Structure formats: C-alpha cells, structure tokens
Amino acid sequence: MLSLLTFTYTHQLNADFAVLLCFVSGCVELLCGVLRLGFLVDFVSVPVISGFTSAASITIASTQLKGLFGLKFSSEAFLDTWEAFLSHISETRLWDLVLGGISITVLLALRKLKDLRIGPPSDKDTHKFVHGLFWFVSTGRNALVVLICSITAFILYQRGMIPFILTGDIVSGLPSLAFPPLSTELNGRVLNVFEMISELGSGILIVPLISISSNVAIAKAFSKGARVDATQEMIALGLCNILGSFSRSIPVAGAFSRSAVNNVSGVRSTLGGLYTGVMIVLALGLLTPYFFFIPKCSLAAVIMVALIFMVDYQIIKPLWKSNRKDMVPLLSTFLACLFLGVEKGLLVGIVVDVLILLYFNARPNISVHSVESEPKYLVVQPRGSLVFPAVDFLRETVIAQVNESKHAASALVLDCAYVPHTDYTAAQGLAALVKDVKIHGMQVVLLNAQDPVVKSLLAACPELRVANSYEHVSQILSEDPVMIELGTYLQSLNKDVH
C-alpha cells in the first residue's frame, strides 16, 4: 500500500521527492509517537480504511492496463486512466497482451496450489514434501512468474527478437549514505525543501496515517489477543523511515501478505527481518543487471493480481448484518477515492465518519415509560453522554412526551444510569427543562446519576431532587403530597381547556 501511495504522490516528480516523502513521513510518525498520539488511529474506522484500500487497489490496478496491453500514455486519476486506455486500445501490442494474460492465468492458478490436497499418504515423508513444495511454489508465485518471463525475454533478446516492452536498465549496488535531499531540480526549476513539500501536498499526512493504521491492523491480526501499543508502532515506523531516507528509501510499512508468510513459515523474532534484509542486499548487488529483461506486461500482471485480492468486498456482508449505517462511510470513501482521488477520498471518509459520530452523540437513544403505581411519574432514560449537542434533543423529546395527555403523571424522573458525563451547556439546558416541566405542574427527580453528573446539574439547578433507586423516588414524591396534588389538578385543568 505504501508503494502505491508513493506512486500516487510522486509519479510525475523525480526520485528526490520519494526520498523526502520517506523522511517527512518518518518525522511525522516519530512525532506522533513521542506525543503519544496512538489514540488518533481509533478515529479512522475499519469501513473507511476498507473503502480507501479497495478504491486505491482498483485505481492502481487500472494504471497497469497500459503495461498489460503494451500501451504508452500518461494519466493520473481513475477516470483519466480509463479514458486514455479506451482511446489507445487500438495500439495494443499483441505479444505483450498474450504474455500478460498467460501470467495472470498462471498466478491465479498457483494461488490455489497451496490449498490442493492429494489423497491419503502412503508415505508420510513424501506426502509432507509434496505439500511443502506446493506451498513454496504458491507462496513464491510472483517471483516464479517474473523469473520465467524474464528468461523467455532474455532468450528472445539474444536472438534479436524483442516482442515485449522490457523494464530496461536498473542501477545496481547499494546507494551511498547521504542526508535526504533538501532541494532538487524539476522541469528546469530548482526547488527548495519547502517547495518540495508543497508539491507532495497531502501525502505528508496521508502516507503516515495509512502507514500507522496498516501497521496497527497487522499487529492486531497476529498478536493472538495480546495488547497492541499504537504509540510503539508509531515510534518504530518513524525511525525506520527516517533512517531509510538516508539510503534513499521510499516510505515503508508492514504488509499483510509478507506478515502472513512469515507467520506460516514459523518466524517468531526480528531475526527474520535481518535475514530478509541480507537477501535484499545480495539481490541489489548481484541481480539488478538481469532486471533489464523483465517484461513490463509480466510486472503489470503481478501487480494487478495482487491488487484484485486487496479489494475488500468480504466486509460488505458482515457490515450489512451488524450495522448498516457503517455502509455510509465505506461507500462514500470508496466512491470519493475513485472519482476525487485517494487522498481526497480518505479525507471525505474521515469527515463522514466524524459527522456520523457527532450525529449519534447529538441524538442519543432516549427511552420513555410511565409508572402507573401511585404516585404516578414519567421516567426518561437517555443512553449516552449528555453534552451540548444532545440536550436540546432531550428537551424536545421530554416536552413532547409531557404534552401527551396519556401521561397523567405528577413528576418527571430523569434516569441517568447510562449517562457517564455532562457539560456546562447541557446542565443549563436541563435547568431550562426543569422550568418547562414545572409549568406543567411536575417536579423533576434525578435518578442513578454519577457524582460528577449530580454536581454539574445541581450547580445549574439547585432545586433538583436526587434519588439512587426507584424506591427512593417513590419516597421523595410521597414526601411532597402538596406538589403531587397540585400537579394532578393542573393536569386535569389542562385536559378541560383542551
């Protein structure tokens, strides 16, 4: 995902921007870790991440169509890519399409190879070896397909035939250690570090956000129920990216696929990462001359097949069954990412998520029922915090219920058992509610409220009576017969007027 995002923000720029993006992302991640801002990850919901990942996968897979069909054109957004693809489809190179199609077929077939089960074992060792071989080939299918295609291209190249568009020269060896670029040349202009950051735009925030979210998600998936410290993940990612930028790295983060392979392979410590690093260093030193012969159509096939399975369509069914309102941020993020761009789409998804969160805080669930035994009273039970967006809704709901003639009650009991806290504005609103209720000849009793809520409400409305049980409510109301009689008289008077 980080490679895809880096491509999104830097494909029209030079390599210096990718390195600077790595450095700035690391600084942002490290700063978030030092400030212990791990809780911010909780504000990006699973539906938003799912919609973003699916849309980004489809967008980047679409950009690989030109490699698969052997076309040459430039495009950025999802719609631009398809428009350019359809206008250039007549220029399709047949052999690139054939090799790309074969690569996709083989990749999909090999993906299922590890799940293949042969008959009952006559020889346990042979049976185990065959299944291990199937798993190895299935897991290494991407490298295997690229290797076979490269060998094919090399043989044809030696015979003077070049039917495929090849990757071309790749610089070999390790990059020298240097401070991340603070200036660069782009289109004949020399840009300083601030202008470079301006060119990267929202990427300096989106890339760290997605890095942290994906790493935390991976950690939770493989933690087997253990606690995951998001702040620790931020610090680790920050240091990785800052140090990596000194060797001209692009932004990095964990990946589900590699983590799953490590888990299945029995990797249990960071020594596995050291082994992987050594293999990459050897590849950089010894294999890069041969990357010249990799057909672009085979790379496009590998990327497209990988991205197809990153489209998280499986989330729709459980989401629909558990909470349909979560489909709103999922679909809004998905569609906005496709039609507005991945960075704007993610922002849209987060805003929609926050608005939904605010709406349900402003409109808490309120249950109302009447107690018919003497003395009769009306019970209102809000479920959620009573803060300033919610108090007006509570007030309107209560007054509407009080005005209904079917409630011949002498008092209003506000059951705050599910109200964890309140604020000053809400306390003032409840004080106004008490005055409104008194006009109808009803007194107000506060029930099951926690101490902070009681203190806040009594400060705004000292005449409130406080009870800790329904028996206590009955006792309070029985102690004030004059008020009860007055309330009953006023209610009967209201009925006569109506």
**How many strand segments?**
7
Shape: elongated
Structural class: alpha/beta
Task: Write the H/E string, N to C.
Answer: HHHHHHHHEEHHHHHHHHHEEHEHEHEHH
Mean pLDDT: 83
Strand content: 5-15%
Biggest pleated sheet: 5 strands, mixed
Q: How are the strands of the largest sheet arranged?
A: 3-4-5-6-7
Question: What share of the residues lie within helices?
Answer: 55-70%
Radius of gyration: 32 Å
Report on the structure:
It is a single chain. This protein is of the alpha/beta class and 498 residues long. The protein is 62% helix and 7% strand. It has 22 helices and 7 strands. A 5-stranded mixed sheet has the order 3-4-5-6-7, with helices on both faces. Helix 18 links the parallel strand 4 and strand 5. The longest helix has 21 residues, at 342-362.
Quick tags:
22 helices; single chain; elongated; 62% helix; two-stranded antiparallel sheet; 5-stranded mixed β-sheet; 498 residues
